[in-house]
TrEMBL record:
Name of the protein in question: Chaperone SurA
Domain remark from Swiss-Prot or TrEMBL: The PPIase activity resides only in the second parvulin domain. The N-terminal region and the C-terminal tail are necessary and sufficient for the chaperone activity of SurA. The PPIase activity is dispensable for SurA to function as a chaperone. The N-terminal region and the C-terminal tail are also required for porin recognition.
Ranges in coiled-coil conformation: none
Organism for this UniProt entry: Arenimonas soli
EC number: 5.2.1.8
PANTHER family assigned: CHAPERONE SURA
Physiological role: Chaperone involved in the correct folding and assembly of outer membrane proteins. Recognizes specific patterns of aromatic residues and the orientation of their side chains, which are found more frequently in integral outer membrane proteins. May act in both early periplasmic and late outer membrane-associated steps of protein maturation.
Leader sequence segment: 1-26
Keywords assigned: Chaperone, Isomerase, Periplasm, Repeat, Rotamase, Signal
Entry's localization field: Periplasm
Domain PpiC, first and last residues per copy: 175-277, 286-385
Primary location recorded for the protein, binned into one broad class: periplasm
Highest taxon of the lineage: Bacteria
């Protein structure tokens, strides 16, 4: 697969690392040679697994040594296919759907992010050996999986102000951020002393190989890690120190960028953590605007042109010397600001909508806009002033909320996936091929 097409694949692979065609697409394009796994009443074909593995190996065509042995890679990819198939079945059972219109918007977004027209996108897919139908099916599946996660998490994750206060009291929110990667050497349930010693030695050996320069950390993760992010080179991404489990913070703070921790025993096995790089967070400010506004709504009984003419007449009266606030109180149809003489208060640029925000940025203080249209009607606004507002504390609370919500969401969804996997009938037939 052409590496230049990686951004398009990245858009597809928000939830998985391999391009995973849906079952219908796979059956339409490849013969049924054998069954790789049985998943409840469904099956994953050997051809589907081969296609997914081929996409992984194609992405690493210039660095094939970074991939694990074929049998290990097949097992990793099959595990993901199984989990994806179970989630898709649950999403459809739950009534989650992606309309053709929503899918068309997603495809347009993929094309736009890659600076392509849809025709160019089609041509690139053909060039890389992917049919447009497979692309559509895979993208629809990704959207279904994301909506399943959102629906499940939103119904179960709540963050209280008390939880935010508690986190802020014990952690320094808004401090340095670190980018991390990890490698996990898994231990089986009920691991024996011999299992533990073997896993610890393997983790130490991996660390030694990387530190000697024989292989980089990302390649080692791909080859040796048992973690779900193995095929991403063990990448964890940027994390604030306050978003990291307290047991690991001290360990990470002792590392310099590029350094790797000693093996750390966790619930699932031994873990190596690499500090990739660090960055500081500074004081955060936001430009806020103060304005007055008048809204004339366009309705089925008030055509848009009639509303525009009324807005224009009101503006003319203000420019001629009448008081903006008095006219707003009498004529504005914005119930949020009318009683205050159209006073919109201090607000971020797009708080009242992007149409209002676009006008504000073009006006000078004291200047009155020409009538302009939004989705609700016609507006006239007067920009009164701007200020730079320190939002560091507000953002700290928002960060704390996101940290707690993310932790809860990950815990809840991981629990959901484990339960779903445990309740499913899954039979791998890789050893029977």
């Amino acid at each position: 697969m052409n590496n230049a097409f990686a951004p398009v694949l990245a858009a597809l692979l928000a939830l998985s690392t391999a391009f995973v065609p849906g079952p219908a697409a796979a059956q339409a394009t490849t013969p049924i040679d054998s069954i790789a796994a049985v998943v409840d009443e469904d099956v994953i074909l050997r051809s589907e697994l081969d296609r997914a593995v081929a996409n992984i190996t194609a992405q690493y065509a210039s660095q094939p040594g970074q991939l694990p042995p074929r049998d290990v890679l097949e097992r990793q990819v099959l595990d993901r296919l199984v989990l994806a198939r179970l989630q898709l079945a649950r999403a459809r059972e739950s009534g989650i759907r992606v309309s053709d219109g929503e899918l068309a918007q997603a495809i347009e977004s993929v094309a736009s992010r890659n600076r392509m027209t849809q025709d160019q996108l089609r041509a690139r897919l053909v060039q890389d050996g992917l049919s447009y139908e497979e692309f559509r099916d895979s993208l629809r599946d990704e959207l279904l999986l994301e909506r399943l996660r959102q629906r499940y998490v939103q119904s179960r994750v709540q963050v209280s102000e008390a939880e935010i206060d508690q986190l802020l009291a014990v952690r320094e929110i808004g401090g340095p951020e670190v980018r991390l990667a990890n490698i996990i050497v898994a231990l089986p349930d009920g691991a024996t002393a011999e299992d533990i010693a073997t896993a610890q030695k393997k983790a130490r050996d991996i660390k030694s190989v990387v530190e000697r320069g024989e292989i980089d950390f990302a390649a080692a993760a791909i080859r040796f890690s048992d973690a779900p992010n193995a095929l991403e080179g063990g990448n964890i991404g940027w994390r604030a120190l306050d978003a990291i489990p307290p047991a690991f913070v001290g360990l990470i703070q002792q590392l310099k960028p590029g350094e790797i921790s000693e093996p750390v025993r966790g619930p699932g096995g031994y873990q190596l953590i690499q500090l990739v790089e660090t960055r500081e967070q500074g004081t955060q400010t936001m430009t806020e605007y103060n304005a007055q506004g008048i809204l004339i709504r366009a309705t089925p009984t008030v055509p848009s042109e009639t509303a525009r003419q009324k807005a224009q007449a009101l503006r003319d009266r203000i420019v001629a010397g009448e008081d903006f606030a008095a006219i707003a109180r009498e004529h504005s149809e914005d119930t949020m600001s009318r009683n205050d003489g159209g006073d919109m208060g201090w607000f971020p640029v797009n708080a009242w909508g992007t149409s209002v925000g676009a006008q504000l940025t073009q006006l000078r203080d004291g200047e009155i806009s020409q009538p302009f249209q939004s989705e609700v009607g016609w507006h006239v606004i007067k920009r009164l002033g701007t200020r730079e507002q320190d939002v560091t504390e507000q953002n700290r609370r928002n960060q704390a909320r996101e940290i707690i919500a993310q932790r809860k969401a990950e815990e809840e969804f991981e629990r959901f996936l484990r339960q779903m996997r445990a309740e499913a009938f899954v039979e791998s037939r890789l050893t029977k091929d």
